């Protein structure tokens, strides 16, 4: 089992579906290993709250992985440059859309990384969303005073020295795994209802075929290759069906369901662990 410190570490990015609130439950199920592999790293809460010797952290979003590599190798300059955008003058709707346009127009990796943090902290609910043309399109968030996460950036920069960051498909990440590693998967969640399943998945993205492929890979990797795989997802009839053969743990997680974030709903989630019998 991986061990956390007494005090949990927060990610420097706001992230929809982040695993900060589930760290204790996830750690209780993660087996001991030399390396933790995350094909869907997101904001990195599991990475930041485990103590493995090495990490392979992957995401399909190149902006996210470029940002992480910059924080790993150029943290001092990055923190200085990013902090300049966290002033009252930049917490303005018109200025926000100017900065969003600059981000979308830029081809400079470092510049995009600076803008990415600004957009993440000033945009609506910390969402990360792109349109069909690949342009970031999250609206202004209207926060009183967006927080600049200097402490969190410094911790990430320190711990990232143990990590390799990649931008590949989850299939390629699984293919790189070797015995002595454990894999934690936090994919885009399957819809809760059949109606949501049709509406959410008709336009592409992480499809039901992707969910099935991931479940099959996790089963084969855990049972046949003897590399433990832990997967988190919504607890539904669909996910329980595709995760057959795994040791399943049901959780109740609070989720915001109203625009102002004042109303919470308990949502059933599932942890599915595949390992050799």
Automatic annotation (TrEMBL):
GO biological process, one term: mismatch repair
Enzyme class, spelled out: transferase
Binding site for S-adenosyl-L-methionine: 15, 19, 59, 186
Protein's recorded name: Site-specific DNA-methyltransferase (adenine-specific)
Membership in a protein family: Belongs to the N(4)/N(6)-methyltransferase family.
Organism per entry: Paraglaciecola arctica BSs20135
GO molecular function terms attached to this record: S-adenosyl-L-methionine binding; sequence-specific DNA binding; site-specific DNA-methyltransferase (adenine-specific) activity
Keywords attached to this entry: Methyltransferase, S-adenosyl-L-methionine, Transferase
Domain of life: Bacteria
EC number: 2.1.1.72
Catalysed reactions, as listed in the record: a 2'-deoxyadenosine in DNA + S-adenosyl-L-methionine = an N(6)-methyl-2'-deoxyadenosine in DNA + S-adenosyl-L-homocysteine + H(+)
Lineage, broadest ranks: Bacteria, Pseudomonadati, Pseudomonadota, Gammaproteobacteria, Alteromonadales
Gene3D superfamilies: Adenine-specific Methyltransferase, Domain 2 (1.10.1020.10), Vaccinia Virus protein VP39 (3.40.50.150)
């Amino acid at each position: 089992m991986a061990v956390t410190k007494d005090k949990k570490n927060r990610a420097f990015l706001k992230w929809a579906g982040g695993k900060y609130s589930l760290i204790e439950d996830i750690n209780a199920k993660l087996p001991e290993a030399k390396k933790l592999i995350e094909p869907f790293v997101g904001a990195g809460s599991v990475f930041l709250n485990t103590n493995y010797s090495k990490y392979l952290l992957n995401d399909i979003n190149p902006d996210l992985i470029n940002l992480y590599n910059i924080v790993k190798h150029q943290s001092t300059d990055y923190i200085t440059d990013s902090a300049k955008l966290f002033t009252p003058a930049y917490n303005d709707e018109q200025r926000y859309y100017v900065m969003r346009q600059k981000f979308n127009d830029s081809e400079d990796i470092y510049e995009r990384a600076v803008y990415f943090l600004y957009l993440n902290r000033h945009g609506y609910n910390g969402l990360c969303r792109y349109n069909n043309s690949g342009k970031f399109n999250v609206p202004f968030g209207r926060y009183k005073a967006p927080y600049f996460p200097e402490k969190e950036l410094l911790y990430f920069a320190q711990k990232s020295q143990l990590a390799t960051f990649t931008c590949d498909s989850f299939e390629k990440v699984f293919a790189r795994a070797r015995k002595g590693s454990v894999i934690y998967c936090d994919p885009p969640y399957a819809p809760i209802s059949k109606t949501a399943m049709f509406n959410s998945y008709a336009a592409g993205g992480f499809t039901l075929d992707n969910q099935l492929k991931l479940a099959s890979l996790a089963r084969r990797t855990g049972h046949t290759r003897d590399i433990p795989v832990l997967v988190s997802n919504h607890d539904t009839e669909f996910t329980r069906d595709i995760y057959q053969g795994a040791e399943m743990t049901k959780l109740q997680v609070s989720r915001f369901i109203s625009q102002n974030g004042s109303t919470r709903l308990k949502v059933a989630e599932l942890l599915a662990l595949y390992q050799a019998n």
